[in-house]
Write a structure and sequence with these properties.
By secondary structure, the chain is an alpha+beta fold. It folds into two domains: about 90 residues, Glutaredoxin (3-Layer(aba) Sandwich), CATH 3.40.30.10; about 110 residues, Glutathione S-transferase Yfyf (Class Pi), Chain A, domain 2. About 50% of the residues lie in helices and about 10% in strands. The protein is built from seven helices and four strands, in the order βαβββαααααα. Strands 2-1-3-4 form a four-stranded mixed beta sheet, covered by helices on one side. A hairpin with a 6-residue loop joins strand 3 and strand 4. Helix 1 packs antiparallel against helix 5 and helix 3 packs parallel to helix 5. It starts with a strand and ends in a 9-residue tail after the last helix. The structure holds glutathione. The site of glutathione has 11 residues, from loops. Glutathione binds next to loops.
């Protein structure tokens, strides 16, 4: 049985969405962020020492596996349970593009978002160079969010214009972007976000997952 170790208001929401799109059986183990620090509770460290969410546990073929990292989890689920759905065929150009987007979400796009989040918690007196740092972070946000917006121009989904695991991975970036960036308009990214939110499977994942601050209407 697939088990998602799911933290409220977190990236693991997209794993629930993927599982709902595939209509797979799965179990959710819920964890709540500390109300003051917003950090994950220590119980997640009992699953894996990093203590982050999402994590997936699977006991397929008698092997107990723990998978960390959203991108790796999406890839694992699609390879083992996807039956060819939500990813292009291996060996095609679309597959290469898909893999690139799948890694891009956490490998590049998430970094300036995280920097923005962490530095927003510092006062200028705590961090004297924060003004220059903010300019740099905003430039990076513009670069990455602008790139995504451009890639979505005239298409519904990132690869072959059909929903894939890469869209599900990037959905979190599209959801958090409006909270982190108020520069140039990103109309295609906004439409993409709405498109993700209108999927019935997304809605089912939302009702199973509990509190999620970045969903529709936020
Ligand atoms: N790159 C990792 C990031 C995992 C991650 O940082 N998850 C956050 C939730 S969005 C978390 O567990 N935060 C709680 C904490 O750091 O205590 C992934 O995509 O799985």
């Amino acid at each position: 049985m697939l088990k998602v170790h799911h933290l409220n208001n977190s990236r693991s929401q997209r794993i629930l969405w993927l599982l709902e799109e595939l209509e797979l059986d799965y179990e959710i183990v819920q964890y709540q962020r500390d109300k003051l620090t917003t950090l994950a509770p220590p119980e997640l460290e009992q699953v894996h020492q990093l203590g982050k969410s999402p994590m997936l546990t699977d006991n397929k073929d008698g092997n107990d596996r723990i998978i960390i990292e959203s991108g790796a989890i999406i890839d694992y689920i699609l390879r083992h349970y996807g039956q060819g759905r939500l990813q292009p065929e291996l060996g095609t150009d679309d597959y290469e593009e898909y893999l690139q987007w799948l890694h891009y979400g956490e490998g590049s796009a998430a970094l300036p978002m995280m920097l923005k989040l962490y530095t927003s918690r510092l006062s200028p007196s705590e961090h004297p160079s924060s003004a220059a740092l903010q300019i740099r972070i905003n430039d990076e946000l513009q670069r990455h969010l602008g790139y995504l917006d451009q890639a979505l121009d005239g298409v519904d989904w990132l690869v072959g214009n059909s929903l894939s695991g890469a869209d599900i991975q990037l959905s979190f970036i599209a959801e958090v972007a409006p909270l982190m960036y108020s520069g140039s308009a990103l109309p295609n990214l906004e439409l993409f976000r709405q498109r993700c939110h209108s999927r019935p499977a997304y809605r089912r994942a939302l009702s199973r997952g509990g509190i999620y601050a970045y969903g529709p209407g936020k």
